[in-house]
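INFO  loader      accepted 1 record
INFO  loader      residues=97
INFO  predictor   begin
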Amino acid sequence: MFILAGVGQNKEEIPIGLIEEMKNADLIFLEYYTNFFDEETINYLKSINNKIEIVDREFVENKLEDIILNNKDKKIILIVSGNPLFATTNFYFIKLC
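INFO  predictor   done
INFO  writer      dumping tokens
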């Protein structure tokens, strides 16, 4: 399962449903190039699930597809700041899944 999640601009805007999904996710990626997260938000997300990997544009555009396709039995979350549908790459991942 692939979840594309927008978390707003700070920890107060993180959806409760995402917090629940994060608790038992297998892989969590925090996209850190379109927008930036403050340290408080990053630390809060890591307190929910310390498996979070901060990733850059190259990772999202060149590696994430293979991870999704090779791990269909796992829960994979890509967290982005703000609206996740502003980036055209993210539309591709929705279509892929």
